[in-house]
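Suppose a colleague, Dr. K., hands you the sequence of a protein chain of 117 amino acids and asks what its three-dimensional shape might be. Before reaching for any lab equipment, you can write down a predicted structure in token form. Begin with the sequence itself:
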Amino acid sequence: MKKFVSTTTLAIFALLPTSTFAVTAYDSPSVSIKDPGSIDLVTVINKLITWVLLLVGGIAILFIIWGGFQYITSSGNKDKAEAAKQTLTYAVIGLVVIVLAKVIVNLVTNTAATALF
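The predicted structure, expressed as tokens, is then:
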């Protein structure tokens, strides 16, 4: 268990500079502030749903990684291997549902935006 925690901690710290660079590399030097009255409800709902789906998608990816780790460390034990396959299957199904949810949200918000305006 200590080896797993050490490896996971090392992986997180190895990826931190990459994410920090990604944020700073795409920052623009000029900041534009939108008029709060110009933001419509459809845009706010779409952004909120996008953030929620990104969070849930990240959790699904973590479950895929966890299922892969379980499968690799099953050491030929059929029960553990079956549990890992089940974790992987459910995580992939969850990821597909998340992608389909995003597609449906985009369709509904685009239809609502064109119907309202």
